[in-house]
Amino acid sequence: MRALLVMDVQEAVVARYPDPGYLPRLAGAIKKARTAGIPVIHIAVGFRPGGPEISTRNRMFGRLAGSPHAGGPNPIHPEIAPADGDVIVTKRRVSAFTGSDLDLVLRAQNIDHLVLTGIATSGVVLSTLREAADRDFELTVLADACLDNDPEVHRVLVEKVFPMQAAVTTVSEWQPETVAAVAA
């Protein structure tokens, strides 16, 4: 069974990656998934109040260690807000698996194929793809439903790196099988 992962599409993150076409494309992927009966799982980075799980040695999050600003996840962007039945997973590092219960959620639902989307291509998408591949998940990346602040890095990842471990396609080309069709 497949699941669509919508990773780090939180208000504060989207604000740092200006692309007016991104959220509508991502919303299209979410609509396709829901129409096909594919679970949508939102991944959001977040920490406990004060960030006790953040090391000052962590270059990505270390500035938040001990900060009163460290806390629950920043809200998911309202244009792709979770619907009833969507799962929200809070992670503690770059990969969607690290410090989260994502693997438990996937295995409980017999999900063995992940469709990856999110911000940033060189961050959460890359880290999650590598870890998911090592955990033997089948993988699809929706290239235009991923976003990076460096277009060249995005291009190299989706054209050269990701195809070694995943099928790479676009939202318009993605044809999710319906759950009923898969079960038949």
UniProtKB/TrEMBL annotation:
Boundaries of every Isochorismatase-like domain copy: 3-172
Keyword Hydrolase on entry: yes
Stored CDD domains: cysteine_hydrolases
Gene Ontology molecular function: hydrolase activity
Keywords: Hydrolase
Pfam families: Isochorismatase (PF00857)
Name the UniProt record assigns to this protein: Cysteine hydrolase
